């Protein structure tokens, strides 16, 4: 079983990396980018039967710092696990 | 006084901190590797050094905060043993939950490495007893992730309880309310971004940092 953990800064928390990316996009001439927020994607390869509660605890204890970050857990279906190239 | 300096893979101020502690206490601290699960018997001061523990993987201080030795540090802190975290050490203490808030990427994106002015906000703590309240001192910073953030309620509590130890006198890294160092509610854990061990000898430019160690020694000896 695979799970993807998306870790993002909470709304309102200043994201200097997002700002730098935004600035670089502007520099490349891309117009219409109103805001950029950078986050992390962490993929977990898990033993079958790993509970949702365990995954959530992993997020709370280590993967995200809940002082400043939110996390979202996405469990991948078996078909995707075979590497269809789609997400 | 018996002291310990923690060493993580990627720590790079551990020896400077040890030199500072030895210069003031006259006794070399034990250097304690992160895989240890216990501190030496009778450790009366724990120092967590600056650097880039675990290459700053995941978040600065995140991995170090979950290393085996940190359980012993949390136990000792709970029993009142003084804990000083400098720079990456401050990041480790927030990640370990021993201090509130988080240290984020500097608002200006640049690594900041220069002496900064600090206002001593609280001169009553064991760490700041050699300074006067309101005194301005100069201590070097060297960090990329020193932007201290916490929710408004936490910031108000820190201020209300006199737990802001040091405040930058000018803009340095975007920290909320210019906070440079904070203390836990029990008063025995200090985290600060500036490096007092880098202002120890006249050759360093000034000795404002030395006073922190001297005051600490006097307070706990």
CATH class category name of chain B: Alpha Beta
Radius of gyration of chain A: 16 Å
CATH architecture of chain B: 3-Layer(aba) Sandwich
Mean pLDDT of chain A: 89
- List low-confidence stretches of chain B: none
Number of discrete helical segments of chain B: 6
The total strand number of chain A stands at 3
Helix content of chain B: 25-40%
Overall shape of chain A: elongated
Average pLDDT figure of chain B:
96
What is the CATH third-level topology name of chain B? Answer: Rossmann fold
- What is the CATH homology-level superfamily of chain B? Class I glutamine amidotransferase (GATase) domain
Helix proportion of residues of chain A, in percent?
Answer: 25-40%
Distance between the termini of chain A: 14 Å
- Whole-number tally of structural domains of chain B: 1
Name given to the CATH architecture of chain A? 2-Layer Sandwich
Summarize the structure.
Chain A has 87 residues and is α+β, with helices and mostly antiparallel strands.
Keywords:
heterodimer, A: about 90 residues, alpha+beta, Mth169, Chain: A, three-stranded antiparallel beta sheet, disordered C terminus, B: about 220 residues, alpha/beta, Rossmann fold, two-stranded antiparallel ribbon, 6 helices
Q: Any chance you could write out the topology, listing elements then pairs?
A:
The complex is a heterodimer of chains A (87) and B (221).
Chain A (H helix, E strand, L loop, with lengths): L1 E8 L6 H12 L11 E7 L6 H12 L5 E8 L1 H4 L6
Chain B lengths: L2 E5 L6 H12 L4 E4 L11 E4 L13 H4 L2 H11 L4 E4 L1 H8 L6 E3 L7 E9 L15 E8 L3 E3 L2 H9 L3 E5 L10 E5 L5 E4 L15 H13 L1
Parallel strand pairs in B: 1-2, 1-3, 3-4, 4-11
Antiparallel strand pairs in B: 5-8, 6-7, 6-9, 9-10, 10-11
Helix pairs in contact in B: 1-6
